[in-house]
């Protein structure tokens, strides 16, 4: 069962997410048969991201800006289906008994 609207535009991607995506592609090119340990891979990627200069990060930040523009453009044309209103926080029943301490 799919939760939410399948026609809703995909969310915007951050600069770090673009960086991790390229890291993963590099890793797959170098080691095509090797399975990836996600925890170890994430640590290595985050260390590499912290070590990048602002100039190197700019490429990924530009990709994120372009994706944000794409997302905003797609959301302008998006109309949510009826019955898919934002569900707020449930109201607490004032008559409900209090929990003991």
From TrEMBL:
One of its GO terms (cellular component) is extracellular region. Residues 9-79 form the HMG box domain. InterPro entries: HMG_box_dom (IPR009071), HMG_box_dom_sf (IPR036910), HMGB (IPR050342). One of its GO terms (biological process) is inflammatory response. Residues 9-79 bind DNA. Keywords: Chromosome, Cytoplasm, Disulfide bond, DNA recombination, DNA-binding, Immunity, Inflammatory response, Innate immunity, Nucleus, Oxidation, Repeat, Secreted. Its main location: nucleus. SMART domains: HMG. Signal peptide: none annotated. Residues 72-101 are annotated as: Disordered. GO terms for molecular function: DNA binding. It is found in: Chromosome; Cytoplasm; Secreted. PROSITE patterns: HMG_BOX_2. Belongs to the HMGB family. This is HMG box domain-containing protein.
